[in-house]
Every structure is written in structure tokens, then in C-alpha cells.
Design goal:
The protein is of the alpha/beta class. Helices cover about 30% and strands about 20% of the residues. The protein binds ligand G3I.
């Protein structure tokens, strides 16, 4: 692990060797994205990408040298979440001394493979370093905001979605906030964290993430729902909700899961299943979870919490898609089949301000005994072989340019127009003498003069009015570039 003081300049991007691998991976991924539906995708990530989604896994930096492990990761997933490496105790073990070595290993690996990264997590009551555990009050508030700012700034442009705040609500029927040292700094600590994260990385989606918010009738689910609704109403920056979805006998997959997903989505946020594992790995339950996500347009990704059963934090429950030898389990086949049966993404955006599809139930009511009707009809016909065009166009802007003598990093935001994009391309004419050396979250064609950047496998799909970001590093000067965007 290497120490990186915050006073040192921000890392300028992945190494050139990693970048060339990324170009190959992205090219392959893009081909998969547009593959004919007649030849069903054979990996989870490729199949999810065809449906405008990602399929990811939590991974550990110290396992990236194990060939069985890394082969599965590279083959199957188009998104990763560092399982522990971005937590507060890992990234700021001493106050204001930041360590990004293990997290960088994962981020660089993801970039080299053309994968998205979910950042986990910026503010949490657990896995705090000792210095933070003993803090309270305004000193803690300031330290928390500094942590959010420094870490999100360091990874600016490289994170698809951040779990800004993790597990802030109590279990049980109270619907109350968890009594943590962060909560004791004041009830507004969550929104303060989100505002700091937005300021530090305007291109990342900002998520609230929690467990036991899967069952629509549970008080904790309603508490999280009310938080998101309140944030949306008051303009606090929030883009997504993460449902951890650790399912087991004490917290089983609920029959109203789809209602929960669609109700959060109706608030105008993406919904992500962020830590999925299922005790015993029932193929049917895994299939249901995937079907529920596919039925909700704004459920844009699923992450399983580990790769093989032996990698799981609950390894005795055998809850994952691969056995300890790395073989696919029946649950894997069910997930892939369900993904492949899903329709391609619609071309019109879901409403962003519509009321929830169902009224919140009384929080003390017992769980319903019958499943609610699906809020979106499941697809009954095979998807067309090519996605319909995104006729609403797109726009692009350089939102951040870091220039130093001899080089620069540019971060570009791509925004869909009046309808969703399935794919996009941004062209930019570089100043004389400038050259692109590597790019992330996109694929670059050419390096000098007019350079064309096309979407990565996971970010071609942008809902109407929504944005994604990509970045590139170059030699020379990057000032004065005017991007133009086209969408299909
Ligand atoms: O790496 C050390 C090792 O050197 C040491 O010998 C060993 C002794 O205990 O500990 C190892 O670290 C452990 C680490 O996992 C890596 O395996 C920590 O003790 C252990 O606490 C840590 O557990 C993690 C847990 O979060 C901590 O809260 C799990 O891996 C991780 O899967 C789990 O993830 C959480 C999510 O972040 C939030 N949602 C719930 C989820 C499951 O608890």
C-alpha cells in the first residue's frame, strides 16, 4: 500500500499500458453491446450491457493476483465495487493521511478492463479508523466532510456511482436514524455529505446505500424512501439508491421487491442492487431479483457481493454465483438466462417527478401475503436485433480541465437530449501539438487533430436529460477544445 498525502497532486490517469488494454477491452465490449440478439450474450456483463445496465461484483485487491479469481472477474463483470478498500479506515487510516494503494489497484484494474467502478463508501458509522471513532461534534463533522471531499476529488472522473452514505437508519420498526457518532453531529449530516460529494465529483452518481430496505412494508424501507423524497423535493443532490439486498432466512427476498424498486425509481433516482447475495443461492430467487430489476427502467445495475462462495463475507451460506473452485452454479445460469430474456432499454426516459406507483403502506403492517402486480409488464417478445436510435441527440462539455506544463487531463460530461441514447460519440479537435495518451469511460479513435470518443460498453445508455462522464489524458495543452456530440 502506498501513502498518498492529499497535498500531492492528483493522479493524472491510468498508465499508458493499462490504457491500451482498455482500448482493446472497450472495443470488444462495444461489439458485444451491439451483438445480434439472435446470439445470446454468454457473460453477465455483456448481457446486462445489452439491456443498458451493468452487472458487477465486489472484489478484493489482494485477490487480483489469483488467476481463477481474476479470470472470472474479467470475463463476467462490467462493473466492480472495492469490497473494503475504499472504506474510511482504508483510505484515511490517520487523520489527513490518505492511502489509496489498494483502492487504486482495483480502479486501475477496472479501467484496464473497461469496467465501471462503484465507490463504497464515503461516510459510514462502521469501519471508521480509530481517530474517527473517538470523535464527536463539529470536529467529526468537519473531518467527515474533509474525507468525502478528499476521496471523491482524488477519484473524480473515475467513479460511476458513489455510495456517499451507508447504513444510516436503524433496524426495527422505529424508522429512526441509527444512533452513530455521525448522526450525533446533527440530522443534516447526510445531506452535508451529499453536497460535499457533488462539489468534489460532479460527474459521479451519488447514492444512499442500505440493507433491509428491500421489503416495501418495512419501516426502514419507508424511512429511506422518505429521505430520498425529501432530498429530491429540497434539491439536495442525490441520484441513486442502493439496495444492498443481502437475502437470508432472517431477511428473505420479499414478494414486494419490485414495488420497492419501482417506488424508489418513481422519485426520480436510479435504483441499484449493490450487494446481492442469497443464502443457499436459490436459482429461482436470483432469477426473480434479476427479473424485478429488468422490469424497472431505472434499475440500472446489479452487483453481487463477492465472486466465489469462498470469497463471501458469509461463505458458510454459499450465497454467490460461483463455487469455491470457480465453477458456475445453477444460480449463475438462471441469472444469465433471465438477463438474456430481458428487453433492450426503452428510448424514452421514465418520469423523474412522478409520484410513487403505490402509496407507502403503514409501517407496522405485516408483509403482504401475495405479490403485487408488476409495475411494468414483463417483456413478451424477443428484443429487436438492433437498439432503436436515440433521436433526441446529445450535448457534451468539458467540465474540468487540469493543465500542467506539458500535459493535461480533461473530463467531459455527455448529456442526452429529449430521448435516451443507446450509444454516443463525441468529437473534439485538439489544439496543435496536443495528443491523447489514454482515455477512460470511453474509447478514443485517433490521438491528434480531431479525435473521436465513443461510449464504453456500460455507458452508451443515457436516459433523456441524464448525463455520464468520460475523461482523457493528453500531452501538450488541452485548452479551447469544443466537443460535439452525436447519439444513436
Ligand atoms: O484483512 C484483514 C486480515 O489481515 C486480518 O487477519 C483479519 C482478522 O480479522 O481481518 C481482515 O480484515 C477483514 C476484512 O473484512 C477483509 O476480510 C476485517 O476484519 C473484516 O471486518 C472485514 O469485513 C468486511 C465487513 O464489511 C466489515 O464491516 C467484509 O469483508 C465486507 O464484505 C463487509 O461489507 C459490508 C459492506 O461494506 C456494507 N454492507 C454490509 C456488507 C457485509 O457486512
Amino acid at each position: 500500500m502506498t501513502d498518498q498525502s492529499v497535498s500531492r497532486p492528483r493522479r493524472r490517469g491510468p498508465r499508458a499500458a493499462l490504457a491500451s488494454a482498455a482500448v482493446v477491452a472497450l472495443a470488444a465490449g462495444t461489439a458485444l453491446l451491439f451483438a445480434s440478439a439472435a446470439s445470446a450474450a454468454t457473460t453477465l456483463g455483456a448481457s446486462a450491457a445489452e439491456r443498458g445496465r451493468y452487472f458487477g461484483a465486489a472484489i478484493a485487491a489482494n485477490k487480483l493476483s489469483e488467476s481463477t479469481y481474476v479470470n472470472i472477474v474479467n470475463r463476467e463483470f462490467n462493473s466492480v465495487t472495492p469490497e473494503n478498500e475504499m472504506k474510511i479506515d482504508a483510505t484515511e487510516p490517520q487523520q489527513n493521511q490518505f492511502t489509496f494503494g489498494n483502492a487504486d489497484r482495483i480502479v486501475n484494474h477496472a479501467i484496464s478492463q473497461g469496467m465501471a467502478v462503484r465507490g463504497h463508501t464515503l461516510a459510514w458509522h462502521s469501519q471508521q479508523p480509530g481517530w474517527m471513532q473517538s470523535m464527536e461534534g463539529s470536529a467529526l463533522r468537519q473531518a467527515m466532510l474533509n474525507h468525502v471531499t478528499q476521496v471523491a476529488t482524488y477519484y473524480r472522473g473515475k467513479i460511476d456511482s458513489w455510495d456517499v452514505v451507508n447504513e444510516a437508519f436503524d433496524d426495527g420498526n422505529s424508522g429512526a436514524r441509527r444512533n452513530s457518532n455521525l448522526q450525533r453531529t446533527g440530522n443534516d449530516w447526510i445531506e452535508a455529505a451529499f453536497r460535499a460529494a457533488r462539489a468534489a465529483d460532479p460527474g459521479a452518481k451519488l447514492c444512499y446505500n442500505d440493507y433491509n430496505i428491500d421489503n416495501w412494508s418495512w419501516a426502514k424501507t419507508q424511512a429511506a424512501y422518505n429521505l430520498v423524497r425529501d432530498f429530491k423535493q429540497r434539491g439536495v443532490p442525490i441520484d441513486c439508491v442502493g439496495l444492498q439486498s443481502h437475502f437470508n432466512s432472517g431477511s428473505p427476498y420479499p414478494s414486494n421487491y419490485r414495488t420497492t424498486l419501482s417506488s424508489f425509481a418513481a422519485l426520480g433516482v436510479d435504483v441499484q442492487i449493490t450487494e446481492l447475495d442469497i443464502e443457499g443461492a436459490s436459482a429461482n430467487t436470483y432469477r426473480s431479483v434479476v427479473a424485478d430489476c429488468l422490469a424497472v427502467a431505472r434499475c440500472n445495475g446489479i452487483t453481487v457481493w463477492g465472486v466465489r462462495d469462498c470469497d463471501s463475507w458469509r461463505s458458510s451460506q454459499n450465497p454467490l454465483l460461483f463455487d469455491c473452485s470457480g465453477n458456475k452454479k445453477p444460480a449463475y445460469d438462471a441469472v444469465l438466462a433471465e438477463l438474456n430474456s430481458g428487453a433492450p432499454p426503452p428510448t424514452t426516459a421514465p418520469p423523474t417527478t412522478a409520484p410513487p406507483t403505490t402509496a407507502p403502506p403503514p409501517t407496522t403492517a405485516p408483509p403482504p401475503t401475495t405479490a403485487p402486480p408488476p409495475t411494468t409488464a414483463p417483456p413478451t417478445t424477443a428484443p429487436p436485433t438492433t437498439p432503436p436510435p436515440g433521436g433526441g441527440g446529445c450535448s457534451a462539455a468539458v467540465y474540468q480541465l487540469d493543465q500542467w506544463p506539458g500535459g493535461f487531463v480533461a473530463n467531459v460530461r455527455v448529456t442526452a437530449g429529449s430521448s435516451a441514447t443507446n450509444a454516443w460519440a463525441v468529437t473534439m479537435t485538439l489544439p496543435s501539438g496536443a495528443a491523447v495518451t489514454n482515455a477512460w469511460n470511453s474509447q478514443a479513435s485517433g490521438s491528434t487533430g480531431t479525435v473521436r470518443f465513443t461510449n464504453a460498453p456500460w455507458n452508451g445508455r443515457i436516459n433523456a436529460g441524464q448525463s455520464t462522464t468520460f475523461g482523457f489524458q493528453g500531452t501538450g495543452t488541452g485548452s479551447g477544445m469544443t466537443p460535439s456530440c452525436s447519439a444513436s
